[in-house]
Amino acid sequence: MDNSGIYVGLDIGTTSIKVIVAERVKGQMNVIGVGSERSNGLSRGVIVDIDKAASAIQSAVRQAEEKASIEIKKVIAGVPANLVKIERCRGMIAVADESKEINNEDVQNVAAAALVQSLPPEREVLDVIPDEFVVDGFDGIKDPRGMVGVRLEMHGTLFTGPKTIIHNTRKAIEKAGLQIEQIVIAPLALSSLVLNDGEQDFGSIIIDMGGGQTTAAVIHDHQLKYTYVDQEGGQYITKDISVVLNTSIENAEKLKRDYGYADAQQAADDEEFPVDVVGQSTPTQISEQYLAEIIEARLDQVFGKVKQHLDEIRALELPGGIVLTGGVAAIPGVTELASQLFGTRVRVFTPNQMGLRHPSFDEALAVIKYQAALSEVALLVKSALTGDTRASVAHDFSEVVDPIASAPRTSTEKTTQTTKQQPEQKQDNPDRKGALDHIKGFFNHFFD
């Protein structure tokens, strides 16, 4: 199998739209083009003016096309976690082929059967991920193709979102003259980029600090288990600076970027800079520490609300700690401030590709990596969403088979039982046993 080719990631953010073009050759992903345009027609991560958003997308795409020297026709688009619901789904079919050998069509059919459920009219299926297949009662199967059986089942995870958000995203991309290759939930894609295998397995928290909103996502057992969206982001910090210092939004944004600190303790009280104040002919001198106090006050409020929701599900007990992404995560001192407030290990993820060394590029790069890493079976299952039986399955990434997820069980509701059996499967790793015991309450919360 070979998943070489061109991948285009699109991040439609509140403050900026990012486009990344990458070429995958022999397992190596090389970025060959980047486009960035100031957002228009968005509010708090949601498209509210389709025409303006489409125009901004076109501009970002043109920049990427010029640098990559290619024509972009299809994109992989990330969508925010606003009001995303995570549910279990299950489908079962009789194997159609006379030989009873399971093929691609059977996988698509069982995925379609799993999607048959009543949804409220205002919601739409965003994504479906297969957790395991069951062939004639034998469970824990990751790829049933080529096996012989009479009955095929699929247990999976279903993600649904508001139809309005999904429709507006699709419409804006189509109006920009592009086709959507895949729509990916942003936190799901980010987990594949910013977390290593152990962090995804034992459990970690990703906090995406965007311009219009702040999203917290809990990843455990290589799955997205929980999301919380706070409708405050970097724009609120800019507005606070503008109001307190009585300066324009443009000046406030520049001050935040050039002189801002998230932790006032790191800022110098004797370092000052000029600020153009509305109604005054001469600039006013402001200290770095005073500016930092304004920024810290807003971040305290945002992190406080995020912590409250994470405490409710005991997510901060997960051993992987917190990874910060998004443009606001680039403010100096944010790691130290977050570590003090959350009481756990915190780090900022920054891409190491040339020209992308800023957290604001994380999502656009993440959707590319997520799509490139999809297994053939996952692509077949996703094709059931669109009914496209010709879905491409040319990928050479081997699927990550997680020992907990692949442990035998008769239904998805028995995940708690699987967790209890894990020490027997991993007797040679007492640290893992301790970690799993420590977070048992958290794991039970999602599946009891």
TrEMBL record:
Q: Name one GO cellular component term.
A: cell division site
The membrane topology noted for this protein in its Swiss-Prot or TrEMBL record is: Peripheral membrane protein
Pfam families named among the record's database cross-references: FtsA (PF14450), FtsA_C (PF11983), SHS2_FTSA (PF02491)
Which spans does this entry mark as compositional bias, Low complexity? Answer: 413-422
| Ranges annotated as biased composition (Basic and acidic residues) | 423-434
Q: What is its main location?
A: membrane
Q: What are the residue boundaries of the SHS2 domain, all occurrences included? A: 7-194
What family name appears in the similarity comment? Answer: Belongs to the FtsA/MreB family.
Report the PANTHER family cross-referenced here: CELL DIVISION PROTEIN FTSA, CELL DIVISION PROTEIN FTSA-RELATED
The protein in question is named Cell division protein FtsA
